[in-house]
Amino acid sequence: MKSFIRSVLAAATLAAAALITASAAAQSATTPPDPMANPCQRACLEGWVNNYLEAMKAHNVDPALFAREVKFTENGIHLPLGGEGLWFDMTGIGNYKFYVPDIETQQVAFFGTVQIAGRASTQGPAKPTIVGLVLRLKIRKGRITEIEQLSIRPDVQLGAATAPAPPRFPPTGEAVEATGAPHPIFAEVIPPAERMSRADLIRTANYYFTGMAPNDGKGYYPFTDDCLRHENGMITAGPKDPSAPNRQGCKEQFEKSLKGVVSRIRDRRFVAVDRERGIVFAFAFFDHHNINWTWQLGELFKIEKGKIRRIEAMFQKAPFGTPSGWSTYEQAMSEDIQDVR
Predict the structure, then answer these.
(1) Helix count (H) and strand count (E) of the chain?
(2) Same domain, yes or no: 82 and 197
(3) Domain identity same for 173 and 199
């Protein structure tokens, strides 16, 4: 009798184990894989940018590339994907490409240039116009779920009786394209033992914003001695050289020339961090209350050993108080750090 009971119990145990195994197999077959279990690496994330640019050039909202619920903004405005903004008139991809992949959050940021259809003039046929592009993509489950971009176009004079005066600076797209490629310093890999945490990299980059607004010339400005800043393709701070003997260094400029210039830097959204190369990418707004002026920008920082070595920004004028389209009103008006994931 005891032997019979043991046999029954053993059979029941084996049957239960078989049911559990079968149930687990069935669940594995029907449950989508965890998107972070096998994250997209550097080349993969950069490839998403390339695929996106090709899709925008072709004006093709491919369902194999985009999630059904994809959210898209251009210059802070929520638009339907396809047929609006650069999706309407982009005709080509430029040569300047700067990728900031964030493997931890599966986002990738990008500085680059694209072309749009030009306008015919009395001087000849239309030529392509170069536009500066600032971009963020979020990738989930093999699709693009979020697209945030700034399209920085040259000013266009409509109906002017006379030719406009030449601009003080070249158009952003042209100036960025003329630089050719990001400086090799940006591609330098930080030794593993010297890599800062994500939080520390963001905190260091944010010192640039807290030092700028409001600035009394006595703040904490963690710049290296060879710090160099590019804005809209132009060098605006850096070491002196024979071609620019009057140029101010990054720290010197903060201490002497940028006092009281910016009233507030708000909606500080840090959207990509590349710890391997020490790069932080952020969107923000620079408000100037005295002239009712706002700069809408994307900005990135190369950070080494707790100091900012390189800065690159692209920006444009926006209506005062413009939000990003991705923040609550309180966040849009705040100067707090937002670590966007």
Answers:
(1) 7, 13
(2) no
(3) no
